[in-house]
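Memo to structure team: turn this sequence into structure tokens by end of day. - J.P.
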Amino acid sequence: MVQRGHSHVVGMWARFEQRVHPAFGTSRPERVTRAVVRAIRSERVEVLVNPMPVRPAIASWALAPGMAARMFRLLGIDAFMLRVARGAHGDGASSADERLPENSSMRL
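Reply from structure team:
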């Protein structure tokens, strides 16, 4: 599996014409292509392409989700993702909202 991280050149971020939050970092498609070839040739199970250290972030969400959520708020990632989600739906509404309980903190 090649985990490419985010790219503002192709994919979701390019489609929404949004810059990726600086805390995520970005990967260029050429780097991802090289990683795929390297993974196939070396038979590696996992290759991380993201320039930012994602493993500590993933571990923090698994081991201390409350702390990870506070870090996201401190870095402004939650507000950033909310703006992106609202922009993707045009008027700020989301069909995902309809599937969440009324008191959910995840509602858009």
